Amino acid sequence: MLRRHIRILSYKVLAQRSYHKMANTKPFTVFVEGNIGSGKTTFLEHFRQFEDITLLTEPVEEWRNLRGWNLLDLMYKDPSKWAMAFQAYVSLTMLDMHRRPTTTPVKLMERSIYSARYCFVEHMQRSGILHPAQFAVLDEWFRFIHTEIPIEADLIVYLKTDPKIAYERIKRRARSEEQCVPLSYLEELHKLHEDWLVNRTFAECPAPVLVIDADLDLSQITEEYKKTEHQILRKAVDVVMRSPNKLSPKKPITSSPIKIIPQIRL
C-alpha cells in the first residue's frame, strides 16, 4: 500500500512539473474505446484518484434528455427512423468533449468522434439502418470535423471484450434503453473495433493503441487497470516534457498495438 501511494505521489510531482512546461500546449489525450459493456466507465473511475487527470465520460444523460426527448431510447426502439438524428447529436456532444478545455496535463475521454464514425455509424450503414443519403451527410460532417477542427489524440486504450461477456454485463446493469440490444449487434460492433484498432484493415487509427484484455469480472479487473498506470501516466509525462509544443499525429498510425493480457481469467 505504501509503495502504491509513493508511486501515485511521484506521478503527481512529474505531472505538476510537466504542467508548467505545457502552459501553451494541449494535454496528453487518451481515448478509452471499446464495445458496449466493455468496462469503460470502470476504467475511467480507476483514474479518478489522480488529481492531474481530467476524466470525460460519454454524455449519455445528454442523449437521454434533449429538450425532454430521450434520443438514445428512440434510436434503440426505432433505429431506421432515429439513427440519423441520434448520431448527428452524438457528433455534436462528442465534439464538445474533444474541444472542452482542461487545466490538467492528462485528459481521458470515454470514446471519441472516431469510434462514433468508424464503429457505430459504419455499422448502421452496413446493416442498412441508414439510407445512403443519411450516411453521406454523417460522413461529410465527420470529414469536415476531421479536416477543419483539431482533434487531439495521443493514445487509445482499447478494452478488448468478448461480445458474450459484454452482453451479460449489459443485462446485469439493466440500463432501460439497452434491454433490446441483441448479441449479434455486439458481435458486429466487436468486429468493427477489431478491424479499426487491432487488425488495421479499416479506417485510420489516429494514435498508438494499448490493448487490454477486459474479459475479467468487473470486480477484479481493477487490478489489471493498475498495470496501465505506469504506461499511460509515464508516457504522458514523457511526451509533454520532451515536446512542449507537441502536435497530435496527422498521419494514420501503422505500428502494431500493445497488448496487456490478464494472468487470471474467469
Write up this protein.
- This protein has 266 residues and is an alpha/beta fold.
- It contains ten helices and six strands.
- It has a single domain (26-247, 254-260), classed as P-loop containing nucleotide triphosphate hydrolases (Rossmann fold, 3-Layer(aba) Sandwich), CATH 3.40.50.
- Helix content is 52%, strand content 11%.
- A six-stranded parallel beta sheet has the order 2-3-1-4-5-6.
- Strand 5 (209-213), helix 10 (222-242) and strand 6 form a beta-alpha-beta unit.
- Helix 6 crosses helix 9.
- The longest helix is centred in the middle third of the chain and has 21 residues, at 79-99.
- The chain starts with a helix and ends in a 6-residue tail after the last strand.
Largest sheet descriptor:
6 strands, parallel
Strand content: 5-15%
Q: Would you tell me the overall average pLDDT? A: 81
Number of folding domains? 1
| CATH architecture annotation name | 3-Layer(aba) Sandwich
**The first-level CATH class name:** Alpha Beta
Order of helices and strands: HEHEHHHEHHEHHEHE
**Rg, nearest Å:** 18 Å
CA(first)-CA(last) distance = 26 Å
Please count the beta strands (DSSP E, at least 2 residues each). Answer: 6
Secondary structure layout:
Blueprint: H1 2-21, E1 28-34, H2 40-46, E2 53-56, H3 60-64, H4 71-77, H5 79-99, E3 106-110, H6 113-126, H7 132-148, E4 155-160, H8 163-173, H9 183-197, E5 209-213, H10 222-242, E6 258-260
Helix pairs in contact: 1-10, 4-5, 5-6, 5-7, 6-7, 6-9, 8-9
